[in-house]
Amino acid sequence: MQTTATESPQAALKGTKRLFISLGLFSLFVNVLMLTGPLYMLQVYDRVLSSRSTATLVSLTLLIAGLYIIMGVLDYARGRIAARVGALIQTRLDPKVFEAGLNRALVSGERGRPWSGLRDLEAVQRFMASPVLFALFDIPWTPIFLFAIFTFHPYLGWLAVAGGIVLVGISLANQQMTKRSTSEATATAMVSDSFAETVRQQAEVVQGLGMQGAVLTRWQKNRNRALHANLVSADVVNQFSTMSKTLRFFLQSAMLGLGAWVVLRGEMSPGSMIAGSVLLGRALAPIEQLIGGWALVTRARQGWTSLETQLAKSPTAKKHLQLPVPKPRVELVGVTVVPPEQQRPSLRAVSLKLAPGQALGVIGPSASGKSTLARTLAGIWKPVQGSVRLDGADIEHYGSDLGGYIGYLPQDIALFDGTVAENIARLSVAPDPQKVVEAAKKAGAHEMILKLPDGYDTQLLVGGARLSGGQRQRIALARAMYNNPALVVLDEPNSNLDGEGGEALMHAIRAIKADGRIVVIMAHRPAAISECDLLLVLHEGVVQAFGPRDEVLREQVRNHATIALRPQDGGAQAAAPKAEAVNQ
Ligand SMILES: Nc1ncnc2c1ncn2[C@@H]1O[C@H](COP(=O)(O)OP(=O)(O)OP(=O)(O)O)[C@@H](O)[C@H]1O
């Protein structure tokens, strides 16, 4: 059976039909073999006891022992098959669900929201591996067992049918009453878990600002709601489970009682009386099992539906013809960008061209669109209008290869669980040591990394070294430089750097330029643009100026001086000559 990744839950079921048919066949044999118990009793009571033949008893017992062994093997086999179908579905859907989680996180508004994808999938897998699934396969046999009871005596048959109807009623009521509490328990547990995770990640802020009490109260609110919903659901399930169990016990005794009465009337043998009672137990067992495991069924069903919606919403990466490795030429043509889930563009009609070996500095006040431009250049946000071109091709046409051609250093740096080398190599399975060291050297981080406890093999995050903000930023810079990307985008690269780190950054920018590649630096601090040839000034998402750095700076200073010197009631003209003078 292929384990290739699929795009939807339905597609994940492809090819499993045969496995489900074999589950049905195994269940058929298991259920047929279940008849051996009642048949054995029938024989023992009606034949052995009356004939007093020990030989018949021994041979019957040996026969039934063999049949029970076969039944056990078949039951075990169907359990294995079902668990593997569950695992197969999970393996097939895992990549798509994981990707859907990533896509969802890219939509800013969704980033902090709890996401249930992987848990939904696990719920489906758990259900497939549970005996509750077999209750569904066994239920079709209930009418057959009931029919067998009818063959003993219609009275017994009717009693069994009545009992069955009451149990089905109980199971439907159970289903109805646990639906709401189960989904509430799932949703609130997710919210509280996700809050706990955020708090754990921000433990230092929580400690530093004395927020422990407040976060605990907030977390407990949802936690308790989940607990309450779980309790309600467990109580209901327990209540119905007990009802059904008691009813079944009673029915089995009632069956014996009714059977005895029928035997006394001479209308049935004593063996049928016992066999009828056992058959009744078998007929009702799947219903009882379903009632007990209903929470699992509901959760799996919710998970399946939720996966269908989530995966349908998550865009599928288009297949692209693989383009050649791009040369470092970048062009923005009328690029307008609206951040995800926002209405207003944060970048409007930006056009510019960058040639190999050029460094562009982007400046502007807070919220002027610098990070938006960085994300757009890195292909994270797509323009609603215009296009970003790398070596003449729209960056979208590079598909998933794009990341390899671009180096991106975001404002919020995240390193991953792994060694320094693995982090620099962007978590590739087999990092190329030469390329790792080359990137670190170009980023001016090599010496700093060598001083770490295990150098490039220093473990980061889980159980590993705690790095300073500057060290993290320098490793992230090396990661952006890995494999010599045609375009390197640095969003506030010097926010955490000291003098040495700042010098390393300048070294990195010079290295990119010397290689004839392109670097774009979003900057707040003037030091970061000292190596830039070009400067772009953004204001409220609009280009205010673009051109050679010194020209743009001069223009900016002139404008600034013009505004600063402009009399409140006068015009710019009056101050202009003075501004000129300022520039000279
Ligand atoms: N993740 C996001 N989701 C939605 N809107 C965003 C997001 N990031 C930024 N914006 C919006 O885009 C606009 C431009 O923000 P951007 O981060 O690009 O500015 P910036 O110039 O980088 O600011 P700063 O210098 O403070 O980092 C802002 O109005 C902001 O509300």
UniProtKB/TrEMBL annotation:
Keywords: ATP-binding, Membrane, Nucleotide-binding, Transmembrane, Transmembrane helix. It is a multi-pass membrane protein. Residues 25-299 form the ABC transmembrane type-1 domain. PANTHER family: ABC TRANSPORTER TRANSMEMBRANE REGION, ATP-BINDING CASSETTE SUB-FAMILY B. GO terms for molecular function: ABC-type transporter activity; ATP binding; ATP hydrolysis activity; ATPase-coupled lipid transmembrane transporter activity. CDD domains: ABC_6TM_PrtD_like. The keyword ATP-binding applies. It is found in: Cell membrane. The keyword Transferase does not apply. One of its GO terms (cellular component) is type I protein secretion system complex. InterPro entries: AAA+_ATPase (IPR003593), ABC1_TM_dom (IPR011527), ABC1_TM_sf (IPR036640), ABC_AprD-like_6TM (IPR047957), ABC_transporter-like_ATP-bd (IPR003439), ABC_transporter-like_CS (IPR017871), ATPase_T1SS_PrtD-like (IPR010128), P-loop_NTPase (IPR027417). One of its GO terms (biological process) is protein secretion by the type I secretion system. This is ATP-binding cassette subfamily C protein. The chain crosses the membrane at residues 20-42, 54-74, 127-149, 155-173, 247-264. SMART domains: AAA. Residues 330-565 form the ABC transporter domain.
